[in-house]
Amino acid sequence: MSSCVDKASHRLDEFALIERYFKDLTPQAGVCLGIGDDAAIVECSADSQLVIATDTLLESVHFPADTNAYDIGRRALCVNLSDLAAMGAKPRWFTLALSLPSRLATEAWFDSLSRGLADIAASAGCALVGGDTTRGPLSVTLTLLGEVPVAQALRRDGAMAGDHIYVTGTLGDGAAALHVLKNEPKRTQQSRLLEHFYAPKPRVSEGIQLRGIASACIDISDGLLADLAHICKLSRVGAEIQRAQLPVHPELRRDFLQQHQHWALYGGDDYQLCFTVPPDRQPHVEKLISAQRLQATAIGTITASKGMDLLDIDGGCEPIGMAEHTLGYNHFE
Asked: What is the third-level CATH fold of 164-326?
């Protein structure tokens, strides 16, 4: 097998790296021209719209500095796929722009990164079609391209007063995982939490099922309240959330008794979907839940007011502001 290392200079060759680790990453139909030219050519399905999302992950910001390349690859693709899920789009292709320092530019590191990407790409059914590599601080930028039938994309601006608010999965796991990574790496439940942190399950199938059902949808990356506030702002509505209805994993409730509710409301990195459903479509959603085709929990109601309230189990009400940047994670705080 040919090596990607220049024997004379002991340097990695960029084009050999691409050829060996990335060129054939989960090929699929629709790629007319993939990696190897100046740009890729893809063929979209008839009667569909292209959905495009881009995210950048930085070392020590979006993942710890000692994260292995396999987990970096998995996390990078998972969090980007979550954006497509929130639009109800089917993933098709992605590009990778990679910056990394010389200390990481080894065949072993690239092999590990490509395996992490390949594992997630294979399960999501999307193919790498291009990108770029350069030397610099470690950062991973992915651009995801997906498809959705014309006029069926889920958006943030369709919620109306009276709609029911749902979330998929459980909340607070992302913030708990980050807490464990920083403070308690030997906790017994870290395996489940860390798997969620490095490979959160993109709710792609759920997003596709919600086409024509959800009036608005968003993925929870910065925290439930912060991301729900985006829906409320664009839809010109408010919301009431029932604290007692927040879905929290039993282990999280047990092991983090004092923190779990705060993390469920304000913690980021959950990558679940928060969506709203008109009353006449709620029976359809409940039927999907009963049939175990959709893992989701009703947590509140959209209101006509422009505010957001938290209701406790005794009926008490706590009004909170609607400034999204004060409710969850903010890069520029």
From this structure: Phosphoribosyl-aminoimidazole Synthetase; Chain A, domain 2 (3.90.650)
Ranges for all domains in the chain classified under CATH 3.90.650.10? 164-326
Contact in structure between 246 and 194 (CB atoms under 8 Å): no
Is residue 322 a contact partner of residue 306, using CB atoms and an 8 Å limit?
A: yes
Q: Calculate helix-pair angle for 107-124, 69-86, nearest 10 degrees.
A: 30
Contact 32, 41 (CB under 8 A): yes
Query: Measured in whole angstroms, how far is the alpha carbon of residue 290 from the centre of its chain?
Result: 25
Contact, 190 vs 180, CB < 8 A? yes
- 92-142 pLDDT, tens digit per residue, is 999 999 999 999 988 899 999 999 999 999 999 999 998 888 999 999 999
What's the pLDDT band for 184 if we cut at 50, 70, 90?
confident
- The CATH fold assigned to 11-149 is 60s Ribosomal Protein L30; Chain: A; (3.30.1330)
CATH 3.30.1330.10 residue spans of the chain: 11-149
The answer to whether 137 and 99 are in contact (CB under 8 A) is yes
Amino acid present at 37: D
Q: Rounded to whole angstroms, what are the CA distances from 53 to 38, 117, 164, 196, 281?
A: 21, 17, 27, 21, 28
Q: Distance between CA 52 and CA 328 in Å, rounded?
A: 24
Q: What are phi and psi of 263, to 5 degrees?
A: -65, -40
How many angstroms separate the CA atoms of 164 and 247, rounded? 15
Which segments of 59-138 are extended strands (E)? 90-100, 127-135
Give the containing element (helix H, strand E) for 53. strand 48-58
**What pairs with residue 33 in β-bridges?**
41
